[in-house]
TrEMBL record, chain A:
Record membrane topology: Multi-pass membrane protein
One Gene Ontology term of the molecular function aspect: transmembrane transporter activity
GO cellular component, one term: plasma membrane
Species assigned in the record: Bradyrhizobium retamae
Name the record gives this protein: ABC transporter permease
């Protein structure tokens, strides 16, 4: 009995730590989505598909063209950033004055396009980088370096965004546009340019997430579906456009998924997270950090 | 007005007579698929036309299909009872998700994202319970012993299925019309304009929205169950998940969201497109149909947000009417 309890606690601790590590990447994705929502007032349904394209970019650069991982990563980030800017320029910009639902559905169309483009161009095989990072063993607990790296890099990425928003002129302009779209264009801020920069930033965050996720998961055209829905849940739970709320919600969800996965399958972790989400909708409908009116 | 009813009656009679005159199995198969999907798309549009854009209908459809098939295979419950039970299950799911959404004024982006997550989660549940549902490999209802086809709602000949699908499709259109003529329509239109103003004018916002959502979810579950019974094979990707939800939205937008036959036109166009691409490209076509779907969806939303039928009808209405010569 004692032996059972010991192993149980070790596994529990391991799951908790892994949940925190997973939370880092989810928080990164939630930040990107929140940034775009907060500034442009558009939700990119296809956000997880941008990550998928970035993962394919990493796969091709590392496996096919033989670039080292550290050289491929910045290129992949730039690629997805360009993709984000292009998405805004081609699809969102013509729809800026359309009803919000139309903008949302148009990005849903982009989801279709990206998924089927990947199917047509890359096939439906599962692919991976072939990089196996060592596993860190602390006592009886095991943590893969790929997760630790993902966590640290995600935090660094979020810090970089934070300083960009707080310390640079462009960042200040972005925050100002998020507060009031109409007024800022009267104040001499080129909102079109700000929108493009924000979209590129959102894309870059997706690209960073892609570089980190490709170390842990195989890439296939539908990989976006495995973390896309959870990202949306996180953003809604944290309050759309609320950066701090999204950050906290990401870690809450990651814990539920990780602990749920400990007792059963990973899919059940997702189901638990969804049940939790529904309950939270009754308690805090406007997001975790919303003030009660 | 009478001539309009006459046109409907003639059209319906022609559709009923069709399988007795024309028996090419492949074409009948396509027609049955069109009718079933038209019904599903119509049920989506009942909600969607009031600005309640749900991406969770893939979830309702999956519940309809899987609950029916699971009850038949594991508990020997005939689909005649299983389909109503599956509709109840989908309705309960709709209420559990929709009630907090409507009660706490979760609208617009939030509503879309919550329902989007719903269809993703139904997909995950089906995949996770692979011991019962076959997971992502798909699931087949057991063949009924010969002579019990009616009990199991399994028919080999396409004509029967065509007539069933036709009947359900007509019922779908009638429900659409009933909603269109009811007080709910005015209530829902007021709500989609301004919820606070509608509430102040005495509209019970939550109850009205729930009613429409429930009708829509029940119909979608029925469509899923019919699809399962007809195809005798379901997989999580074909009846549930985000892709199916988006497919519904896409077809309705293409056909026309605000006219009763819009979803049907959308179904005809999308299925012809998918079949055409499948035949044109052969087995290499994996993904191509969705690629074209996606591009068309984006193009339609940017340039033709009222859909094909809606735009055509608008054009006709805009033309000056001929002065009456009496």
């Amino acid at each position: 009995m004692q032996a059972f309890l010991d192993t149980f606690d070790i596994y529990l601790l391991e799951a908790v730590v892994n949940g925190i590590l997973l939370g880092g990447v989810l928080a990164l994705l939630a930040l990107g989505l929140n940034l775009i929502f907060g500034v442009i007032d558009v939700t990119w349904i296809c956000y997880a598909e941008l990550v998928m394209i970035g993962m394919y970019g990493m796969y091709y650069m590392v496996q096919v063209f033989g670039l080292p991982y550290w050289a491929a990563a910045p290129i992949a980030i730039l690629q997805v950033a360009a993709l984000g800017a292009a998405l805004h320029y081609i699809v969102i910009a013509p729809l800026l004055t359309a009803p919000p639902i139309n903008q949302l559905l148009a990005t849903g169309g982009v989801l279709f396009i990206l998924q089927s483009f990947a199917t047509v161009a890359f096939g439906i095989d599962f692919r991976n980088l072939g990089i196996r990072l060592p596993v860190l063993a602390i006592g009886d607990m095991h943590f893969s370096y790929s997760r630790l790296l993902a966590f640290v890099a995600a935090l660094l990425g979020m810090l970089a965004i934070y300083f960009f928003m707080k310390r640079t002129y462009t960042g200040t302009a972005i925050r100002a546009v998020a507060q009031d779209r109409q007024i800022m264009s009267l104040m001499g801020v080129d909102t079109k340019r700000i929108y493009l920069i924000t979209s590129a930033l959102g894309g870059a965050l997706a690209g960073l997430a892609a570089c980190l996720l490709v170390l842990q998961y195989d890439v296939h055209p539908f990989v976006g579906l495995s973390f896309g829905p959870i990202t949306f849940l996180i953003c809604v739970l944290g309050g759309l456009g609320n950066f701090v709320g999204g950050f906290i919600a990401a870690f809450v969800f990651a814990q539920i998924i990780s602990l749920g996965g400990l007792y059963s399958d990973l899919e059940w972790g997702y189901v638990l997270a969804f049940a939790f989400f529904i309950v939270m909708m009754f308690i805090r409908p406007a997001g975790l950090l919303a003030r009660r009116s | 007005m009478n001539s309009r009813y006459a046109a409907w009656a003639v059209g319906l009679a022609a559709l009923i007579a069709l399988p007795f005159v024309y028996r090419e199995p492949y074409h009948l198969h396509i027609l049955v698929l069109m009718l079933i999907w038209s019904f599903a798309y119509t049920s989506w549009s009942i909600m969607g036309r009031f600005g309640l854009v749900s991406l969770g209908h893939g979830g309702f459809m999956g519940v309809g299909a899987y609950v029916t098939a699971l009850l038949w295979n594991h508990l020997d419950i005939t689909p005649w009872i299983g389909i109503p039970l599956s509709m109840v299950a989908a309705g309960l799911l709709a209420l559990v998700v929709a009630y907090p959404c409507f009660r706490f004024r979760i609208t617009g982006h939030y509503f879309v994202l919550v329902t989007l997550a719903l269809s993703g989660i139904v997909l995950q549940v089906i995949t996770a319970t692979r011991d019962y549902t076959g997971g992502s490999l798909g699931y087949t209802p057991n063949r009924a012993p010969s002579g019990q086809g009616l009990l199991a709602l399994q028919f080999d000949d396409k004509t029967t299925w065509y007539l069933i699908a036709l009947g359900v499709w007509v019922v779908g259109l009638l429900i659409w019309r009933w909603v269109d003529r009811s007080m709910s329509r005015y209530a829902m239109e007021a709500i989609s304009e301004d919820e606070d103003a509608a509430a102040a004018a005495g509209v019970n916002v939550t109850a009205e929205k729930l009613k429409i959502t429930l009708i829509s979810a029940l119909m979608t579950a029925l469509a899923g169950a019919l699809y399962c019974q007809y195809q005798m094979f379901i997989s999580p990707d074909t009846v549930s998940g985000i892709a199916v939800s988006l497919q519904m939205v896409f077809a309705v937008i293409v056909g026309g969201l605000y006219v009763s036959l819009g979803p049907t036109i959308g179904a005809i166009i999308t299925i012809l497109l998918a079949e055409g691409l499948r035949i044109g490209f052969g087995t290499k076509a994996v993904g191509w149909d969705n690629l074209v779907y996606g591009v068309l969806l984006v193009v339609f939303i940017i340039f033709l947000p009222k859909g094909i039928l809606g735009s055509v009808l608008d054009k006709l209405k805009a033309q000056p009417k001929k002065p009456k010569t009496t």
